[in-house]
Amino acid sequence: MQRRIALRRKLQILKNLTKSKSEKKSSIIKDTSIYIHKLQLRVEAITEECQHLINHIHEVKVESVGGGYLVVRVRCKKGEQMLASILEMFEELNVNVVEASITCKNLFGMEVIGT
């Protein structure tokens, strides 16, 4: 009896997660499989999109400074479009850049205060 209750609970969680309209177990499992496949495709697309940054980044540090503010420090190899690529990533992550300082000696460095 407990196994059935646990199974029903897990199926309900899957149904809610995948926004499945079906009540049948097989359909919920099929919808879950499709949902997982879409997530995998999304991860692959994001990885491809970010590969340029991934190959060039040396260090990323994120620190909460209170009041809902974050300090993000990024150090990476110099390269074309690095500033634009990093700012685009902040935008995609919904980080609102309040202040930024940039250095460009041996490595490209950027410190951002954002919310």
TrEMBL record:
GO terms for biological process: regulation of primary metabolic process. GO terms for cellular component: nucleus. It holds the Pfam family bHLH-TF_ACT-like_plant. Residues 59-113 form the Plant bHLH transcription factor ACT-like domain. Signal peptide: none annotated. Keywords: Nucleus. It is found in: Nucleus. Its main location: nucleus. InterPro entries: bHLH-TF_ACT-like_plant, TF_AMS/ICE1/BHLH6-like. This is Plant bHLH transcription factor ACT-like domain-containing protein.
